[in-house]
């Protein structure tokens, strides 16, 4: 069952899961944690991050981003006992806008309830730093950059403009985050750091690159994640020690 459900993470199956808003693969009170980001509570939020993120990326193949879309997978290690399963899976990600295809290893464990719904999951991206460096290196010819640092500088400008366009399109009224396109661009390029590879859940541009993809699903929830406050997801309110010592799961 655990292996079969991985198929739903792959494009285009993830599109159908995203459209469901509340995936029946997940328990109503599902808990999720991804090592490079944060924790996610509840079926709806986990549906958006597990499936909606990649479905939105696939729907916008020309969007310049360092994120990829999972297109296939191979389970390399698997073990299960009663309602707990652990696996190492090699996914193939298509970084469409960069013309790049890379393998990505994700190690995970999951728990299930009597209905076969996922109640808890923990996912860790192996070799994540190396992968990010590889993606940035691969972007250099496309961006006419001569060094990785120059590539990051150009990516910062282009990605910030994209995030600001999302904010201006979807974050209006009570969900407004920036006074104008110019103020948004100024904030994201001058007052927000690009971020180290492990800072996808901190006050960085990297974090907002991820959350940009969820904004169209529920602006009232996700607009503040790409705004100046970070909305509790793109914030510097954690430390290494607090993250490692956090007792998030029920078991």
Topology, pairings included?
Elements: H1 2-6, H2 13-19, E1 26-34, E2 39-41, H3 43-59, E3 69-81, E4 84-95, E5 100-112, E6 118-126, H4 128-143, H5 148-170, H6 181-190, H7 205-212, H8 219-226, H9 240-245
Parallel strand pairs: 1-6
Antiparallel strand pairs: 1-2, 3-4, 4-5, 5-6
Tell me the Rg in angstroms.
18 Å
Low-confidence stretches: none
Helix content: 25-40%
SS-based class: alpha+beta
CATH topology: Nuclear Transport Factor 2, Chain: A
Do you know the CATH architecture?
Roll
Distinct helical segment count:
9
Number of domains: 1
Strands of the biggest beta sheet: in what spatial order?
A: 2-1-6-5-4-3
Strand content: 15-25%
> What is the mean predicted local confidence, pLDDT?
94
User: What distance lies between the first and last C-alpha atoms, to the nearest angstrom?
Assistant: 21 Å
The tally of strands reads: 6
Biggest sheet statistics: 6 strands, mixed
CATH class: Alpha Beta
Order of helices and strands: HHEEHEEEEHHHHHH
Give the overall shape: globular
Write up this protein.
With 251 residues, this protein is an alpha+beta fold. The protein has a single domain, classed as Nuclear Transport Factor 2, Chain: A (Roll). The protein is 40% helix and 24% strand. The protein has 9 helices and 6 strands. It has a 6-stranded mixed beta sheet. A hairpin with a 4-residue loop joins strand 4 and strand 5. Helix 5 packs across helix 7. The chain is globular. The model has no long low-confidence stretch (mean pLDDT 94).
């Amino acid at each position: 069952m655990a292996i079969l459900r991985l198929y739903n993470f792959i494009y285009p199956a993830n599109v159908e899961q995203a459209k469901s808003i509340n995936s029946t693969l997940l328990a109503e009170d599902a808990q999720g944690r991804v090592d490079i980001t944060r924790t996610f509570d509840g079926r709806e939020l986990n549906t958006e991050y597990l499936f909606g993120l990649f479905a939105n990326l696939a729907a916008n193949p020309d969007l310049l981003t360092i994120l990829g879309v999972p297109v296939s997978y191979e389970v390399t290690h698997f073990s299960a006992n009663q309602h707990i399963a652990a696996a190492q899976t090699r996914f193939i990600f298509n970084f469409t806008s960069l013309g790049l295809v890379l393998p990505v290893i994700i190690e995970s464990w999951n728990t299930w309830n009597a209905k076969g719904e996922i109640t808890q999951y923990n996912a860790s991206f192996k070799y994540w730093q190396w992968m990010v460096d590889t993606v940035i290196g691969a972007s250099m010819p496309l961006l006419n950059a001569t060094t990785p640092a120059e590539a990051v500088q150009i990516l910062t400008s282009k990605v910030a403009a994209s995030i600001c366009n999302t904010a201006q399109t979807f974050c209006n009224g009570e969900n407004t985050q920036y006074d104008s396109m110019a103020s948004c661009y100024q904030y994201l390029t001058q007052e927000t750091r690009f971020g180290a590879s492990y800072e996808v859940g901190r006050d960085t541009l990297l974090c907002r690159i991820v959350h940009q993809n969820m904004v169209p699903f529920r602006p009232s929830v996700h607009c503040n994640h790409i705004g100046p406050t970070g909305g509790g997801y793109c914030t510097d309110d954690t430390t290494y020690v607090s993250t490692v010592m956090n007792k998030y799961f029920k078991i």
